[in-house]
Amino acid sequence: MEHIFKGKWITNSEFANLKPRNVFHKQLDKVNLSCYEHRNRHILFRKKFIYDSSENAMIYISADDYYKLYINGQFVSQGPAPSYHFNYNYNAIDVSKYLQKGENIIAVHTLYQGLINRVWQSGDNRHGLILDLVADKKAIVTSDESFKTSPHTGYTEMGICGYETQFLERYDSNSTEVGFVSLDFDDRNWENAQISINADHKLTLQKSGMLEFEDILPVETTICQNRILYDFGANYVGYLCVRAKGKTGDMIKVCCAQELNDDGTLRYNLRANCTYEEEWFLSNGESSLDWFDYKSFRYAELTIPVDVEIVDVYFCTRHYPFVLKTQLKPDYASNKDLRNIWDLCVHTQKYGVQEVIQDCMEREKGFYLGDGCYTALTNMILTNDDSMVRKLIDDAFSTEFITDTLVTCMCCSFMQEIAEYPLILVYLVLWHYNYTGNKEYLRQNYVKITNLLDAYRRNYEEDYLLRNLDKWCVVEWPKNFQHGYDVDIREGQICKEAHVSINAYYISAVRVANKIASILNVEQYRDENPLLSAFYAAFYDKQKNLFRDGENTEHISLVGNSFVYGFNLCSDNSFQQKFLSMLDKNKISSLSFFCVFPVLMGLVQNNRYDLIKQCLLDDGAWKRILKEGGTTTFEGWGKDTKWNTSLFHLTMSYAAIFMADIDLSALFFGF
Asked: Taking burial as the number of CB atoms within 10 A of a residue's CB, which of 23, 171, 626, 668 is the most buried?
């Protein structure tokens, strides 16, 4: 049941009168959205109250962009999951165990980041906090002007890392706001909160779960003069937590990394265009490092002044709730390499999935649709929990307010369109039904699927082929995995030529829509045969029994034929044999994200489980990640296969699907 808030959206004087600005547009539109006047604002709120109830107490809370909630000095939770302002998430949290008879304090640390990026819908001038604390069916605390507020002066910029992704933090433990979570903190000089007069959020209860937190101790500590290096044993996502004793003004340099250099030093300049080098200033006595934003790392190094004592160090990891419910195939369990690949994928999923399905954990933190479909499917199969699949599907379809052919990255202010990604979403809807049997959810999404395909048909289809795409066609990524694909598919332009990959995606999506119609016992979406006929006429080389890349080239690539094979668009035995011969010659490791999954799916449909096992054990694929010391799947097969490789990238964890003890033919039924 949705909660009806009595509280108001509150903020401070900087934001109270700001009007929201539109950050949404088509990717190719020329729009200037630079915003520097309001950014990196850490804004605190406090409210004292008397509690005398014996009933359970619930807090209903949200903030824009983000909050961390404390009650009586104890951390409670944080959120909400990224969402759009017109369907903005709030959280419902049982806080009974944090309350005490008598006087209590609610303290909230909010962040307005203010950047145009893939993390949040920020840069839109919307900031605020809203909450109700309910006990005995009464709201005993509601957000209003009686809350006290102050900027947190302990956080200053040290630059931005990633793709405008996050601010590096210079944290000062001597700032006057340190300890604001405590009941006895003196906030008499703080101003009263103000009502955000232009607040236009429409609130909805977050349907996905809250984050979980787990403390990881170092497995190895190395001291070299004034530098202390900590190895936490694997890549995780979260916050470095340190307590240290020193004097006011002492500065500790804090560096983090996903790997070490060859000489054993810390590689804090990550391959993924993030430089994790920050500063922490101590107060007199014992201080605690209090990062607000999270990072992805395995190693941390502290460079400490003379006479500073490190009291405690641990890694507070954050991740979506994860309980492994599906096991490795019994006949795979006896193979050490397969067990190691399985463990790699499981660890990646457990510690990588956040409040949304992100692609990489450091450079972008983006809720990417294409990568996300495969990652969310993997998460559902491993946990038997479909909440992340449903969040991805729901949030993706909600982007039709920007364009009816949907966008690439959801719940954020960064606008990008990739042609294949919405079509993969169509497949995910069917995969979800095949796995869960939830026909009602399938019915809800069928209309959205047909609307999406109608938009592709209206905007891009000509003579039964897609052309003139004003969306980027990734095909395979990065470019060095494209096998010389001979069509100009560069980002930022219109791809005028019809080509085999995007049309394979499109025909398969139409076929999936027809399959869903059959399941729902409604009229078929459309006849796919004219599409197939045009597809063959444009791309099929009858002499070579393979498909050309585009209508204006004779070039034949493994990439282009991977989609034909994977989506089961050509059952001719000659084609099947030619393709498998190409695959055997080039190996699965010559492909990357977007070809490997369809190829493995095609092998399932053709009952070639021997070749699936062979692909999984390719020395250049998942085994290479492990050989290079990976504890999480990479953005590619090796550290040097991409110019900005993320070493914590979730997509390749989908190997677990093809290793899981499930009926794969039932999962992929309908292709």
From this structure: 171
